[in-house]
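WARN retry 2 of 3 for item q-0093 after timeout on previous attempt; input resubmitted unchanged.
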Amino acid sequence: MMAAKKTRKKRPANGSSLNKSVVLRLFKEQRKPLSRAEVVRRLHLSKKHKPEIRKILKELVRDGELIRIRRAYGLAGAMHLVSGRLEMTRSGVGFVIPDDIRRKDIFIAKKDLNGAWNGDRVSCAVVREGRGGRNHEGRIVRVLERGRELLPVKVFKDLGDGDWAARPTDPLLDFGVIATAPGDMDLQRGDIALCEPGEQLDPLMWEGELVERLGPETDVRVQEALVKSNHSIRVRFPSDALAEAERLPEQPAEDDFSGREDLRSLPFVTIDGSTAKDFDDAVYVERSGKGYRLWVAIADVAHYVREGSALDREALERGNSYYFPLSVEPMFPERLSNGLCSLNPDVPRLTMAVCMELSAKGVVKSARMCNAVIRSHARLTYGQIRDAVLERDKTARAALSPQLLPMLDLCEELARKIKAIRSDRGSLDFELPEPRADVSDDGHIRGFGATQRHFGHQIIEEFMIAANEAVARFLVEEGLPCLFRVHPEASEEKLENLFRFLSLTDPDMARPKEISPKTLQQLIDRVSGTPKEFVVNRLLLRSMKQAKYSPVNEGHFGLASECYCHFTSPIRRYADLVVHRLAKIAIGGKGAIPGGKLLLKIAGNLSSRERAGMDAEREIYRRLMLLFMKDKEGQRFSAVVSQIMDFGFRVELPEHMAEGIIRLSTLDDDYYTYWRHREMLVGERTGKAFTIGQQVDVVLEYADLERLELNFELAPGQSSHDYKEMIA
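OK item q-0093 returned
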């Protein structure tokens, strides 16, 4: 009997079905690295397909599936390499945040950076496994994608012949640039410009080409532009996304209302800040027997933005909207974000609505979801709610519709009950002030202050948290996947240090038998209004880990919630749009259910973009604070010690919402030792001590815009604190 002839798997000889999956399958079958020519040959392709293969290989490298090795390509997984985003620290070391959010961060020593920059997407090899919760250690093998195509730089010396000496504005990039400027670029020393990086000349010097002058660094608009560039925040929409947006109608059509619950008669309202323009949530509360019925209606972005469309791809790339003192970079073009999808007053809008039935005590008994159409009856601000509802100002109440006032009073009543339940289960509420910059129309900083918060803000927050929890539970009960918002448990080591520190001065504050969100909230309540409040809030905040997105439900530690997702802001967060699409399937809509691998990839991208947004927000306020403080060098300020380190301590200026550092090198009266477990610096000769929460007077030595630091000295003539008194 003749042996059966083995059939060879057919390849797309004409390239008709050529795509990334086909090429990736070839690499897995061959089980070895392949050159581009080998890929073409083994797929039985002709020369005309070489450009397409080159493009596909480049995309697979960018996706982290393949690694470039000299003239060949290899599977990243088979080579035991990890792809992710590099985040640098001031000390010059870095951490790779893996694309696979299930993996731990990987520590990268300075010698193992291999030319990678802060924000780059890299491939790294793990060289040492971490033990006991410690990070793995690795070295970067290759830069897969630069974190920024253009590098913001500050030019500081004209070298002649169009060349300028410059430095990156990102203090985490420790090198210089010799940059060539075009002849018509009117540069001045100290200007900020965008540079296209070239070749590396040596470890501390690169070459580049200046492509755009942003302007003087004292202009807030220039600072915003460079921060956006530093964090790869997109400032222009691609033409195909804009074209899609333009093809959408200005108003919903009657046909869009078919199959939706018509809630236009219910007096929904939006409550936002006075400058907000994108309104993605509206609320309505009514009595229901002895309890309440709460409606939360959210803009139905998913109705207009189809999965895989140009608008969808751009929104996924952005991840979320980005807010700056003078500008906003929205996730969607304004035609959607401020128009068709925004729940503007007195016009019909398509929504996804959550209807919750609550008991007289504010406990959610049941919830259902539906596609709906609503009409917002009023666009209200937090200030109006404060005046009319919280303070019951007669003039403010008279300015509102008589139909709305009883409903708004009911909103406050219900929100306070929901908050009490949430607090009782241990949800953590840190009352830390947030900075607010006062910027003139011509782009100059006039001052800083704290954002004023009141329970008017809390009303909307409580309703949104309730809706987010209800949707997450609904998807789980329906057996569908979900993009959860998870928050890992706080660092046990840092919490141990906190309670050890507190117990040194108050034995009643020893570590509880069980550390849970509830015991931590009890601690916050206990120290509220006392001198310990500052210390506890700062140390507790530092013990918290960062929340992230995940297809695996790990719970939300900070909210003490077992099941939580983001649903209420699809105009400005892509995660919410993903949840909306899943919710539509759950209530009978059509659509493909995403697999776990796809959700994992989306979660990693969104968590990364969220970090970029948070870092950008912190950086712009730090830069504006430095500009504001620049002309105050030599002035004296009241401050509070906020952090102790072995080389000095940080101080906060409550009046200006500023933070700076006092280095031990500026203390010339003694040699100081860092007492780690007591969070103190103690003078070896004098016994003089500094600890967290201590009031000190400081003098601003200088504002360093290049390192983004305020440097202070202790003011002369202030009384010292003896460590024996402080630990008595």
